[in-house]
Each structure stands twice: as C-alpha cells, then as structure tokens.
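Support request, please re-run this one:
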Amino acid sequence: MDRMGRARALCFCIVQGKDRIIFATKEDHETPSSAELVADDPDDPYEEQGLILPNGDINWNCPCLGGMASGPCGEQFKSAFSCFHYSTEEIKGSDCVDQFRAMQECMQKYPDLYPQEDETEEKEKSSKDLEAASMEAAAPKEEKGSS
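Re-run finished. Output below.
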C-alpha cells in the first residue's frame, strides 16, 4: 500500500520458454530510468567492426557473413574462409580446395538452408558478367602523359 492507503499494483514477469514477458504498471513508467549506458569499447571483438578486426583476425560475428559461421556447416565455413584469408599462395586460396569442397559437401546436405542457384540463374549471371567484362575491356582508356 502507498502512503494514501491504496493498494499499489506491482510489475511482474512471466517466463515462457525462451521469452520473458514483463508486465509493468503506469507508475513503473513514470520514474525515469537510472540505467547508465556504457561507451562502446573499440577493442571489443564482438562489436561490428567489419569482417577483419584491427589485429587481422576474422570477425566471425560480422553481419556481412550472414550467419554462415554459426549454421550447421559453420565449422566447415570457418575452415575454408580462414584458409583463404590466411593463404599465402600466389593464386590466393589455391591451397584451400579441400576445405571448400568439405564446406560444399556439408551445404548440399542442407538444401533448405543453403539453396543453390538455379542453373538458368547461373547462366544468366555468367553471361551478364561476361558481357560486363567485355564492355569494360572495349571501353577507351585514358592515356597517361598526353598533353
């Protein structure tokens, strides 16, 4: 009860599986929050800093990977991607064929999660890429040193 003798409603929480449902009263929302925001730590490897961290490591939490590192073929993906990233071969990644093959074999076991491009889409994409490359090659190039 409050000072005036009225019953005060209380907030409470219900847990349903992975979810927490919090019921709050109007009075709970009238008081300003006392939560303090902590400044982002630029050295935190879990912050979104892009694919490659400042120390050169791969940021497996980067949204640019689309969750590939955590799916059912996550270990195979990490192995292949790491191999490519750290490859020192003249043709980068040429030493990673086995890792990429293992990743592809894993992905073929989960066609709903890792759909493959339709053959017609692949052909269209290949012809567009070829067309773009030939147009780029045919474009006149600026000559250096001409005055």
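The mean pLDDT is 75. The longest helix spans residues 119-138.
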